């Protein structure tokens, strides 16, 4: 290009105004066109490079994971363990934000309306599947989210205040039936896991007791430990420490098989409640429309977290374990969620429990 420009100057210097030959004119036109092409290509490259870098840079800033329940609860515990590990993998801080209220629907609704850029996520439990049937005016649809992977399925335990009279799960059933007007059952609010478990328990026993809803699992547990309420059914992530510490009285687990971390507890079925089984699964979500490559990166980071020895060990301490690899993909999560919505719909409708 430099040689072409020198040639133009040399020819121009030896020519008089208006004395250019047709060959000179054509040469200058060709040189200018070539220069324009080169400048255009350079401009395109400069404009395209930031876009490419931006697409490859996710995440370029901290990520917020909304937990739709109060701090200190079982879902919050799961979220903080996973977030800590994902922070190391993604190279950006993954921050847990608690947005409680309305049985988890307030926080979920906030994420549903967030920008679909991968920087605002939702970590929710089984309530994501039950809310469509439980709430008459749900501020979002299940389809307003992209599934990013299942995390863990947590067993639940039936526990009572210290000094509660019954000695076994069979005794609890008999006591509840004989004292239904005196027995109180606490839960973390309408739509919470403890609410669902209690609803199934009362259905299985065939007796309704006084239900006391709280704003989160933490306050409910405090009142159970303090003796203000009689019974509660909640996830092992929240009850194992209380059980091992002797702060509450434990009766049974809600799984088909005994839980490794609580080997002395029988199953609800072994206690006479045939077919009683419920686990509280957790999953990660992004707003609908989040790019597929971003969801894939989140899923990969989540899978890495679930292989993290620290996370696995802590989950074991809490009476749970990571979901198997074949259940962690975004695709499996989507199919599973659809099936869970269909499973819980008739149960909730039969119980006749709804929330506005």
TrEMBL record:
InterPro entries: BUG, Bug_dom1. Residues 1-23 are annotated as: Disordered. Gene3D superfamilies: Bordetella uptake gene, domain 1 (3.40.190.150), Periplasmic binding protein-like II (3.40.190.10). Belongs to the UPF0065 (bug) family. This is Uncharacterized protein. The lineage of its organism: Bacteria, Pseudomonadati, Pseudomonadota, Alphaproteobacteria, Hyphomicrobiales.
């Amino acid at each position: 290009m430099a040689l072409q420009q020198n040639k133009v100057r040399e020819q121009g210097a030896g020519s008089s105004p208006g004395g250019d030959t047709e060959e000179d004119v054509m040469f200058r036109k060709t040189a200018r066109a070539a220069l324009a092409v080169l400048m255009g290509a350079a401009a395109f490259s400069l404009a395209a490079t930031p876009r490419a870098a931006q697409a490859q840079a996710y995440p370029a800033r901290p990520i917020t994971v909304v937990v739709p329940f109060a701090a200190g609860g079982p879902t919050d515990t799961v979220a903080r363990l996973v977030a800590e590990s994902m922070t190391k993998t993604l190279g950006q801080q993954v921050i847990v934000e608690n947005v409680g209220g309305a049985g988890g629907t307030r926080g979920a609704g906030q994420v549903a309306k967030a920008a679909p850029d991968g920087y605002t996520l939702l970590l929710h439990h089984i309530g994501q599947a039950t809310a469509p049937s439980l709430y008459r005016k749900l501020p979002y649809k299940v389809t307003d989210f992209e599934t990013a992977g299942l995390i863990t399925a947590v067993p639940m335990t039936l526990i009572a205040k210290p000094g509660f009279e019954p000695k076994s799960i069979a005794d609890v059933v008999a006591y509840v039936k004989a004292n239904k007007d005196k027995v109180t059952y606490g839960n973390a609010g309408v739509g919470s896991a403890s609410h669902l478990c209690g609803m199934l328990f009362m259905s299985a026993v065939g007796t309704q007791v006084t239900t006391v809803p709280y704003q989160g699992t933490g306050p409910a547990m405090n009142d159970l430990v303090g003796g203000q309420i009689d019974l509660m059914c909640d996830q092992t992530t929240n009850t194992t420490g209380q059980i091992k510490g002797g702060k509450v009285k434990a009766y049974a687990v809600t799984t088909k098989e005994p839980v490794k971390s609580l080997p002395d507890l029988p199953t609800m079925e072994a206690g006479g409640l045939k077919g009683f089984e419920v686990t509280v699964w957790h999953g990660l979500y992004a707003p609908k429309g989040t790019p597929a490559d971003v969801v894939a990166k989140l899923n990969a980071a989540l899978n890495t977290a679930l292989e993290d020895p620290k996370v696995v060990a802590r989950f074991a301490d809490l009476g749970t374990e990571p979901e198997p690899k074949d259940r962690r993909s975004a695709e499996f999560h989507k199919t599973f969620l659809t099936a869970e919505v269909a499973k819980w719909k008739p149960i909730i409708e039969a119980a006749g429990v709804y929330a506005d």
